[in-house]
Amino acid sequence: xxxxxxxxxxxxxxxxxxxxxxCDLRLRLSGRAGHGxxxxxxxxxxxxxxxxxxxxxxxxxxxxxxxxxxDQVVKRGADDVDTFGDGWRRDLHFVVPVRNPDFWNSxxxxxxxxxxxxxxxxxxxxxxxxxxxxxxxxxxxLEFNDTQQMYGMPEQVxxxxxxxxxxxxxIDEVVNQRRRVVLVTHKSTSKLNKRHRVLEEMLAAKSGxxxxxRITVRVHKTKGLNHEYTQRSRSFLYVSIGATIARMLGLKxxxxxxxxxxxxxxxxxxQVVGGRATRTTHPRVxxxxxxIITLVAGEPFTVENPYIWKTKADVVKIITDAGCHDLIKHxxxxxHTWEMSNLHTHCGGCSQCIDRxxxxxxxxxDQHDPxxxxxxxxxxxxxxxxxxxxxxxxxxxxxxQVKNLTGVADFISSYPDACRVFQYLNTSAxxxxxxVFDLYKRHAEEVTGAVDELGRRxxxxxxxxxxxxxxxxxxxxxxxxxxxxxAVVSVEKQPENFFRKRGAVWEVRFQGRNTICLLNVDxxxxxxxxxxxxxxxxxxxxEIACGSAANAVDLPANAVVAPEEIEDGFQIVTGAPLTDAxxxxxxxxxxxxxxxxxxxxxxxxxxxxxxxxxxxxxIEEEMAFLTKALEGGKGLGGRQRKAxxxxxxxxxxxxxxxxxxxxxxxxxxxxxxxxxxxxxxxGNEVVYRPGMPITWEVRPIVNT
Length: 704
Description:
Layout: E1 4-9, E2 25-27, E3 29-30, E4 38-45, H1 55-73, E5 91-98, H2 101-104, H3 107-121, E6 124-131, E7 142-144, E8 156-159, H4 164-176, E9 181-186, H5 193-207, E10 213-221, H6 234-249, E11 253-255, H7 260-264, H8 283-297, E12 302-304, H9 312-321, H10 351-362, H11 386-403, H12 408-414, H13 429-457, H14 459-464, H15 472-478, E13 498-502, E14 505-509, E15 516-518, H16 522-533, E16 539-540, H17 541-552, H18 563-569, H19 587-609, H20 613-632, H21 650-668, H22 670-679, E17 680-681, E18 685-688
Parallel strand pairs: 1-2, 1-5, 3-4, 4-7, 5-6, 8-9, 8-11, 9-10, 11-12
Antiparallel strand pairs: 4-10, 13-14, 14-15, 16-18, 17-18
Helix pairs in contact: 1-6, 3-8, 4-9, 9-10, 10-13, 11-13, 13-18, 16-21, 17-19, 17-20, 19-20, 21-22
């Protein structure tokens, strides 16, 4: 993690706050007058809508504006996953003037703010709230405009980004359900102004006498305050604005519209993890937003996503079924807005563009989404950057993998991150698991079906190899072939140092020497891979071993699990009985331990963030027990072990696994073996300290 950065907001004093004032960031927020280095403007507010804003909502909006601005100013320490290390996460300490510091410094509010924002942007947050010395009117942020007709007071506030999902939500509300709504749009760049205006005009034409009211929000920062592109805290500003407008209207909810595959956010590849992955409408974030605004409002407030169980293809079908297919080409999905031009409105290579292309194909609506609007056609054109190639290939590979999974247990074992969302889905763990699996299964069918359709369209070019060798359609066909001949011959330089998995084999290279392959030391190789990915970061042996064991336990591929057992299988129990004969644990017990292990992986991070060392030790003790139970409960080939098998101490088992992997490395590359022996420090905490600058490529090679 980076060194702590202090963000001093408004006119708060810097005296006695930080040890290095030169590193402090001073942010001053102003309204239309623009006297600060941040300007907040809420435009197109109708005078009939303004009923006053309570002081706590005034505070909320200013806090969100400061958080959003600091997110863009304080640059992360690395640009890609290869060099994540501790420099990726930032330690942000805000000192903010507010109207009610006692409320904002209360334990419930602080916990809701720090945990939600920490998960949202993958950073550490701390807040000190002090009393505002000079108040001002909320109207300073507002620009009134009564030229828009109001057809009665709005019934719902809808967050409208201009992407396919929010467009479908607006169409659903206004055209299908005929509800009166306010569309709230945060315009982060002037490049989108014209496209937003066109969408709003076309939507108004489809709405008849039910034209939605629109409110535009802009946050302008002075030159030199835009450094960081990830901007993951943007949705906190977004929801704070929406909630404040809802309060002005006397409403008690806001709605986001985003498909469940994006919301649940299971990583498709190594580049889309942590703060690099969007968590705008992740169920945990939505619950956190709802908790924060409920506390501010002093009464229940709802933050919801009606599309949580829809795929993006489902979303596209809502648009076409409503007769609004002509709006699709004007919607904006690309995350790389800085690459946008009049000709190319989408880059074509980011995860959002890839998702969009597959979705419109699956929904049979690609004729309404012109390929020439994309800078690169991911299916048929060459991609120069390695990360773009991996992104597209990994997206398809995940669909292939999910399509072949036979049930919920298979899915959870392959994607353990899914377990972290179950408690936020307002249903039992078993039902949530089934619905998430069904969602991703449908998405996988859509993705693979879209590729099949394109394969039919381009069969001749594929056969003739006239398409570029690294386009997705060629990759699909020839990825496993040793005889494929690329249309454009290129030799990619291998990294000097890599320790990564290729298929079922671990391949290793050190200081540019020959590549070696490791066999039958998967556990030790997996541990080393993780340590190399996070140099200098001390990690709990129990956490690493428990997570690995939980991922390894699974039902056989041909196991048949009754629906009623799925529900029971995800309930947590303690004191599972162990007998002296027969199986140590039945399949259901293994699933229960596996689920509990994954919950602990989430809890230990929260305990560390809260500085609760006692709780960390308690969790580590339970992890040690579960590791023994999980690894003791299965034998070679996944068979359950008998009670007579001896269980090893977790730390010894961890060290033995690493030592076995290093011993095999030593046969072929002694310098690397010596480097690992000297650099990996064991104990309750294990750490890789190389003692010299070294970058490791640790991402798996997919689709080979």
